[in-house]
Amino acid sequence: MKFSHDYFILNDALQRIDADADAAECHGHVVGLMSATIEADKAAWIKTILSHSETGDALAKECDQILTDLYNETLSMLQSEDLGFELYLPDDEVELSTRLKALANWSQGFLYGIAAAGVKNTESLPGEIPEFVRDLTEISRAEAFDLDQDEEDEGAYTEIVEYIRVGVMLMRTEMQHLYEQANDNPTQ
Length: 188
Hints:
The protein is mostly helical. It has one domain (about 5-185): Four Helix Bundle (Hemerythrin (Met), subunit A) (Up-down Bundle), CATH 1.20.120. The protein contains seven helices and no strands. It has helices spanning about 5-15, 25-35, 40-50, 60-80, 95-115, 130-140, 150-185. The mean pLDDT is about 90.
């Protein structure tokens, strides 16, 4: 499954309304919410993203529609049996430094999303989730990395994106198991 809106369409729409986040950070945020909770509140997420705009404004309505589509498509990808989840980032034809900055913003958004979902102590989470969160913290600082724009950097970028993609699916699965166990044993 592919996203119905190109990355830069949402990014440009967010810039036109002076949003605090770019498209990558918005997606990371909602994926963090979806990974750390049973059900992420779509309306609350969109309200957070559009908090600085006039709700009746045509530009805000455009963003609202694109964000709604992004939410629905992301949830569908995460729930899919075929492991088709993808990060919402610029295409590979875009300059690596731009993609790396978007990846750093995506990671920052994800960390914000899990915090907004109420996860206070990631070190107490099961399995490899604490290490994954620590890695995302480092990746969120990635725009400061020195790049040579060569094949080695491209390969490293691709590996990091894949690591995050798999880490998100693992975290979502682990967190869902935690919620199921809590519901099975409500007194613990």
